[in-house]
Amino acid sequence: MNIVSSTAKINNTIYKAFIIYSILTIIFGFIIYYLCEYINQSSLLFLKFKEDSCRDFLTGLNNVRNFNNLFNDLSKRAAERKERLSLIMIDIDWFKKLMIHMVILQGMKC
């Protein structure tokens, strides 16, 4: 009787440990899944913010930050290749009036 009762206790202990292990595995699996989803969403938002930081949200035109990055990259490439780099800057007078006119035209198309 003693051997049977100790074997039953061992089997009961192993069964309880298995149940606890299974529950913990499921819980931690969900936690890891949600952490991975959070990291994925965070990286997508970071890429969107990075892209949005280089463009004006109203006009969609590149801003000064993007110009600086592009100009630095092109000047480094020209220096490495020992090429010349030209730059043409155009100042548009009445830019605000021009943009308002363009927005009105875009509104009429919708």
Automatic annotation (TrEMBL):
Top-rank taxon: Bacteria
Organism: Clostridium autoethanogenum DSM 10061
Pfam families referenced in this protein's UniProt entry, alphabetically: GGDEF
InterPro entries the UniProt entry points to: GGDEF_dom, Nucleotide_cyclase, Rev_trsase/Diguanyl_cyclase
Enzymatic class: transferase
Membrane-crossing segments per the record: 14-36
Record has Transferase as a keyword: yes
EC number of this enzyme: 2.7.7.65
Keywords per UniProt: Membrane, Nucleotidyltransferase, Transferase, Transmembrane, Transmembrane helix
Name of the protein this chain belongs to: Diguanylate cyclase
GO MF entries: diguanylate cyclase activity
Domain GGDEF: from-to ranges: 55-98
Signal peptide extent: none
